[in-house]
């Protein structure tokens, strides 16, 4: 055995030296490209404005921080949390994750999220000072902020002004209530086109539009204390009004992707959806039809109360050098320049008041975002189910209740009651 | 002779040990190790995971006994997915046996360049990436402006929501999957036909038998083993064959109408991170197929088949 031990000694020493060299390289962090971080994003690599806008953001960051190399990872929007959890289980979590709000609660419970306020140190207070406070609060737990808002939008009504004119409607007076939406859909359908489509049965399994519908009808998926209220009379009434459009032939019973494709080709009058698709639809509409937007409709006498969709940024890095590099990326993406690029190049909301003011002239030339910005003061907080099974509960709501009710004529009251009971048992709340 | 035998019996134990021959073990051992590590060890791990509550990333797991089984049997989705796995198995059986057999026999009856070209063309669906095929079908089946509804519209038929209507979605997944299964099994039947004993075929033709008679009385009896094998494989693998199309085209919907146990296990394990429930479902699948294999073995044993 002794000769073997002697032979192994130089090898072990060599390995130690290599390890030390690797550590010193990682800690240096000042030479160009010396720190590499991964960025898991559902916008990156996609067709249209969301993909090109994200690439533009990363290119600009690379100019500003040549010492940090960002390796973007394209992930389907429905799989962001799944992918991050699987990578974490494999010991290779991405450094920065674009995590949708419908998956944030479960993400904060199950991912190795780092407190951003601690990573930022003295930079923290001046950085968050100008950001819309509601979404920042959503990412805060036990006195620490783990998630900052990145790409946020409010549902809006996109409409085809040419189809409106053909149907004898005034494109300058778009519908503001569900009753008016219904009338407009009847007129558009009479021309042979499809009337309206509410993207509530979201294939990304987010319930932001379900919440917006229920909130606006005076109910909600959840009450402020976390109680499940998706089967309350007001919540049921909200979904019933959307389902009635399908039952009366005013809304096609198709998936969101199919409806988006139909709207992009000029075959659908109105599409109620997140402004996240605005840039992509704008490109498709160019030279084909005039695209306009209006605010989320009221479901009764009360004003509309939409909630936001979109995503936050969380950091999962393990080493100090990677954590600092990740914070630099988050700081850029949620800074003034980042938010300005996100608003103008993709179509998400500008989340700093300073950016809104700065974008004044741009908004005059590009008025499609204006109706959603005007509804910012009515925006409700996004509410998430409690615990580590929050995402499963959201998917249960969408798959077992919302889609069958809105697309396939299931009875709203009994379906929502049965699903809410299953969710209560699953997440352990009343 | 007698003395020699007696001498051998009386040899000391040490000598006997020296003379022990390893036999087939050196050849079997690598395979046994691989099977143990990649098949039986994961099965053991799955059995352990089936009695704990763990979400794949937590540092701790809680022992819950049979609670995962109780929760799994209580959810309607698993029962529906299990039943539909059987529906897939039965629905894909013709695509795995009758259709490729018929095509292979037709190609065999008319050998030549045309036959080779047709065989290559028919095999194409098995070569194309499954996800790419599924995405292409997604465009074709778009209910508002897809080609499928355009074509049915020419015949005055109403528009169909192929993947969004629970009544249509499962048959569509079966048809889309069938193209691949037919293509692959066609190749296997062609291989079986090329290995046929030609003597009885030529003898039958000399006796004036028609093509139909040759196929019916000479070819098909020789292909019986291949048909049975591919039929059994289809019954066992149908759920896995449909997985990609279910995952890309419908994600198990609408209303769970296209789900199968494998997709449900994936959803439980890697979407909901219910590792315990997913493992329990896997154990149930294993128990089902083991029991089915035992019953099939017993039936064949009673019939005296080998």
TrEMBL record, chain A:
Residues 1-22 form the signal peptide. Keywords: Signal. InterPro entries: Bact_solute-bd_prot1, SBP. CDD domains: PBP2_UgpB. This is ABC transporter substrate-binding protein. The keyword Signal applies. Pfam families: SBP_bac_8 (PF13416). It comes from Desertihabitans brevis.
TrEMBL record, chain B:
GO terms for cellular component: plasma membrane. PROSITE patterns: ABC_TM1. This is Sugar ABC transporter permease. It is a multi-pass membrane protein. Pfam families: BPD_transp_1. Belongs to the binding-protein-dependent transport system permease family. GO terms for biological process: transmembrane transport. The keyword Transferase does not apply. Its main location: membrane. The chain crosses the membrane at residues 27-52, 86-109, 121-140, 168-193, 214-238, 277-299. It comes from Desertihabitans brevis. It is found in: Cell membrane. Residues 82-296 form the ABC transmembrane type-1 domain.
